[in-house]
Write a structure and sequence with these properties.
84% helix; 0% strand; mainly alpha; 62 residues; 2 helices
Length: 62
Protein backbone atom coordinates (compact mmCIF):
# COMPACT_ATOMS: atom_id res chain seq x y z
CA UNK A 1 0.00 0.00 0.00
CA UNK A 2 1.32 3.44 -0.94
CA UNK A 3 2.03 6.02 1.71
CA UNK A 4 1.12 9.70 1.30
CA UNK A 5 4.46 10.70 -0.25
CA UNK A 6 4.23 7.89 -2.81
CA UNK A 7 0.73 9.07 -3.79
CA UNK A 8 2.08 12.59 -4.30
CA UNK A 9 4.97 11.25 -6.40
CA UNK A 10 2.50 9.29 -8.52
CA UNK A 11 0.38 12.40 -8.99
CA UNK A 12 3.48 14.33 -9.95
CA UNK A 13 4.23 11.86 -12.75
CA UNK A 14 0.63 12.12 -13.98
CA UNK A 15 0.83 15.91 -13.97
CA UNK A 16 4.11 15.81 -15.91
CA UNK A 17 2.46 13.57 -18.50
CA UNK A 18 -0.57 15.86 -18.73
CA UNK A 19 1.73 18.88 -19.19
CA UNK A 20 3.54 17.14 -22.05
CA UNK A 21 0.27 16.19 -23.74
CA UNK A 22 -1.02 19.74 -23.42
CA UNK A 23 2.21 21.10 -24.94
CA UNK A 24 1.66 18.75 -27.87
CA UNK A 25 -1.94 19.94 -28.16
CA UNK A 26 -0.75 23.55 -28.27
CA UNK A 27 1.52 22.66 -31.19
CA UNK A 28 -1.32 21.20 -33.23
CA UNK A 29 -4.36 23.32 -32.35
CA UNK A 30 -5.82 25.37 -35.19
CA UNK A 31 -8.57 27.60 -33.83
CA UNK A 32 -7.53 30.54 -31.63
CA UNK A 33 -10.40 29.99 -29.19
CA UNK A 34 -9.29 26.39 -28.67
CA UNK A 35 -5.69 27.51 -28.22
CA UNK A 36 -6.81 29.85 -25.44
CA UNK A 37 -8.68 27.05 -23.65
CA UNK A 38 -5.76 24.65 -23.98
CA UNK A 39 -3.33 27.33 -22.79
CA UNK A 40 -5.52 28.00 -19.75
CA UNK A 41 -5.56 24.28 -18.97
CA UNK A 42 -1.80 24.06 -19.50
CA UNK A 43 -1.27 26.95 -17.08
CA UNK A 44 -3.46 25.27 -14.43
CA UNK A 45 -1.61 21.95 -14.79
CA UNK A 46 1.74 23.74 -14.72
CA UNK A 47 0.73 25.46 -11.48
CA UNK A 48 -0.40 22.16 -9.97
CA UNK A 49 2.89 20.59 -11.05
CA UNK A 50 4.83 23.33 -9.27
CA UNK A 51 2.76 22.85 -6.11
CA UNK A 52 3.18 19.07 -6.18
CA UNK A 53 6.95 19.41 -6.65
CA UNK A 54 7.09 21.85 -3.75
CA UNK A 55 5.13 19.38 -1.62
CA UNK A 56 7.62 16.62 -2.42
CA UNK A 57 10.58 18.90 -1.75
CA UNK A 58 9.26 20.04 1.64
CA UNK A 59 7.61 16.77 2.75
CA UNK A 60 8.44 15.94 6.34
CA UNK A 61 9.04 12.29 7.11
CA UNK A 62 7.88 10.96 10.46
Amino acid sequence: MKNAKEHIQSSLKDLQNARTCLQDALQSVEKPENRTKIQDTFNAVDGALTKAQDTINTYKES
